[in-house]
Amino acid sequence: MSQQNVSEPVNSCKVVYASRVAESFVGQLKELVKRFEPVPMLVGFLANTDPAARMYAEWTEKTCKEIGFAFELREVSKDDLEDAIVEANLDKNVNGMMIYFPVFGNRQDQYLQQVVSPEKDVEGLCHKYVMNMYHNIRHLDDEKTRKSILPCTPLAIVKILEYLGVYNKIINYGNRLYGKTITVVNRSEIVGRPLAALLANDGAKVYSVDINNVQLFTRGAGIRSRKHDVTETSLKLEDVAPISDVVICGVPSSNYKFPSYLVRDGAVCICFSSDKNFDAPSLKEHAGIYVPSIGKVTISMLLRNLIRLTSYQRNNPIDV
Question: Residue 195: left if φ>0, alpha if ψ -120 to 50, beta else—which one?
C-alpha cells in the first residue's frame, strides 16, 4: 500500500476552553453592572507569596476592569489579615470580598472564612451558605427572592457541565443530573467536597476520591431524598472512573497525572487544578470532551455572586 493512501487516526476528542464557556456570562455581567450606581466594589485580600494566588488576583482585577466592576487588591501580612477583613465588613463602600488562600495553610484559614460577613462573602464559604448547600436549601428567604450564595469554583464546574449538555434540561430543575455517574478526584473543603455535594443534590451518583478512600454521594434510589447522603465504600479509583460519564480532577500537585486508560470512551473530563492533572495526548484517545482549566468561568461566577450580594444590600434582589 502506498504511503499516500494510509490515513492518520482521527482524534474525536473536543477541547473546550473556559473562555468560550464564560462568554455568555461576561456579556450578562456587562449589562447587569450598568444597573448599579455606584458600581459594585470587590476587595481581594492577598496575604501569601503563592504565585498561583497572585495570578488569580491579577485575573480577577483584569476581568473586573474589563466588565465594569470596581476592584481593589489589599496586600496585608498574615497577622493583620483578620483586622483588615473586619474593617472591610464595616465599610459600606465594599460590597464583596475574597481571600486568596492559602494563608496559614491550616484550620486557621477555615476560621478566616468565617470572619467575612455573609453579606459580603462572594466566595460562598461562610457557615450559612455552606450549610444551605449541603442541605440543598437554595434560598435565603421564605419568599424565595434571594438565592443562597454558592462557592464559586464548584459553581463554575456546574455551569460548565450545563454548557456541555451534561445537565438534562428535559428533567425537572434540581434533578437534571439524574442517571449520571461522576468521579471527583479531590475532597478538599474548599472545592472537592462542596462540588460532590452540589452534583449529588442535582441528582448525580458521585464518587468522591481522595488519597484515603472513595466516598459515594447520592440522593438514593430514584433520588427520593431531598438532599444527598454520604457513604463509605471499599471501592478504588480504578473501579469508579471507568463507569463514570464525567471525571473531574483537582489534585494540587505537579507530580499527579490521572491514568488516562481509566477514562471511559466518550467521557467528559475537567481539570480545575492549576497543575495539569491530565496528560492531554493520551487522554484524547478516550475522552469525548476535555476542559483543561476553569479559571475564567470561576471569576465570572465570583462576579455573579457579587451582583447578587450588592442587590441584596441595596434591597433590590436580582435573579442571576
Answer: alpha
